Amino acid sequence: MTTSLISTASSPSPGTSTSPGTAPKGTIELRNVTKTYGDVVAVDRLDLMVQPGEFVTLLGPSGSGKTTTMMMVAGFEEHTGGSVLIDGQPVDRLPPRERNLGVVFQNYALFPHMSALENVEFALRMRKIPRNERRKRAEEALDRVGLGKMGDRKPRQLSGGQQQRVALARALVFNPAALLLDEPMAALDKRLREQMQEEIKTLQKSLGISVLFVTHDQDEAMAMSDRIVVMKDGRIVQSGAPEEVYNEPLTDWVASFLGDTNLIPCTVLERDGQEVLVDLGCLGTARMPDRGVTGDKYAVSIRPEHLKFRSSATEGNGGAARLESSTNLGATVRHRLTAGGLDLQLRELSSDAADRPVPGSEVFVGWTPGRAQLLVLEQ
Ligand SMILES: Nc1ncnc2c1ncn2[C@@H]1O[C@H](COP(=O)(O)OP(=O)(O)OP(=O)(O)O)[C@@H](O)[C@H]1O
Ligand SMILES: [Mg+2]
Questions:
Q1: Do 198 and 259 lie in a common domain?
Q2: Do 258 and 127 reside in the same domain of the chain?
Q3: Looking at CB atoms within 10 Å, which of 12, 98, 240, 354 has the fewest?
Q4: Nearest atom (ligand 1) to Cα of 231
Q5: Does one domain contain both 85 and 191?
Q6: pTM of the predicted model as reported, rounded to 2 decimal places
Q7: In angstroms, what is the span from residue 242 Cα to ligand 1's centroid?
Q8: DSSP per residue, 117-172
Q9: How far, in Å, CA of 296 to CA of 251, rounded?
Q10: Last residue of a domain, one of 189, 220, 247
Q11: CA dihedral over 230, 233, 234, 235, signed as positive or negative
């Protein structure tokens, strides 16, 4: 059973809960929020807290409930249960416009008949800001996203990245409490996407604004977030800093969703709360930190970049393996190995790959103790 592990991972940490009216600007809180469509549970009892100035990313496969969560925070969808709070105040009865959130959704297009400037101004018009002030603020917002000179252009006269920036300016122009960005860069090519990632991050830091971000691109999540919230089937399965979720996944599903990993089935021989001793079959026994994960079946996760060739079997953890193939991928070399009935992957920098054994040879592999994690096998 992994229930206790999941609920621990999804609860806000102690001291983060707020009472009405006392939270600083930019807090978004979901308390036990559920959304059902008939028999489909799209979001299942979600607890989530975004702190002022924090960049939190919902990461998960298609259909895991990311957009539904955003829609409920924005007020475009009503939830079936629970409560959404912004700056400590419940907003469940407020229409989207009164929630003071800047929104950029993938399908939330610009008005084609309006210029870039008019598109940005529109957000202020909806909020009844006087005309003379509107123009000035819209110009400033376009300036902020580097489009000060393109205010007269219609969306069709702008590139995809520029349109995305207009959408961002429109979301920021009324000084929202927080930004909600749902796959805002999905339509952009890789290079432009990376450029926009950096621009959004820089803008977010300079404004100190909280962001709730959605992506199913793990690299994007790793690059942009203060915290990653991994979702599966409408629930949070793990939440933490990007390095923490990557380096210390709680389950095989999280480990495999967030990059490649070697999963070595194991039996737990001893554990005392501090350390566990596990039996890895032909890869010997190993000690590692006890992170308290509990389940029916266990595995040890070792990322391919943490598995190393060893000169002998006596050098620390690990054991004998056979090198099956080596593929040069440019910056790195990917080696495929077998150990007993197990397929393993080892990755190293091409520059470190000189004098390597040739495919077909018997080798020894191992890892630094801190690089192996005990996790729960769900799949
Ligand atoms: N209007 C709706 N009616 C019925 N089911 C819906 C509706 N909207 C979403 N769902 C279902 O709710 C679940 C979550 O959908 P959601 O759009 O939140 O996923 P997502 O994580 O954003 O996925 P993607 O990465 O594909 O955008 C899915 O199973 C989806 O089919
Ligand atoms: Mg979606």
A1: no
A2: no
A3: 354
A4: 21
A5: yes
A6: 0.86
A7: 25
A8: HHHHHHHHHTTT--HHHHHHHHHHHHHHTT-GGGTT--GGGS-HHHHHHHHHHHHH
A9: 12
A10: 247
A11: negative
Q: Is 42 in the pocket of ligand 1 (CB under 6 A)?
A: yes
- Please tell me the total count of domains within the chain: 2
Which residue has a Cα nearest atom 12 of ligand 1?
Answer: 42
Residue with tokens 């806000």: 12
What tokens were used for 367?
A: 């890892």
pLDDT at 195: 85
Query: Range of 84's domain?
Result: 3-247
Ligand 1 proximity of 62 Cβ (cutoff 6 Å): yes
Do 179 and 285 sit in the same domain of this protein?
no
Helix (H, G, I), strand (E, B) or coil at 257: helix
Domain-ending residue, one of 205, 231, 247? 247
Same-domain check for residues 46 and 139: yes
Asked whether the predicted pLDDT for residue 199 surpasses 80, the reply is yes
pLDDT at 271 over 50: yes
**Would the pLDDT of 206 be above 70?**
yes
With a cut of 90, say whether residue 245 has pLDDT above it. yes
Tell me if 37 CB under 6 Å of ligand 1. Answer: yes
b/e for 117-142, b at 16 or more Cβ within 10 A? bbbbbbbbeeeebeeeebbebbbebb
Least confident of 81-85, 109-113, 233-237, 241-245: 109-113
Query: Is 64 near ligand 1, meaning CB less than 6 Å away?
Result: yes
Do 278 and 149 belong to one domain?
A: no
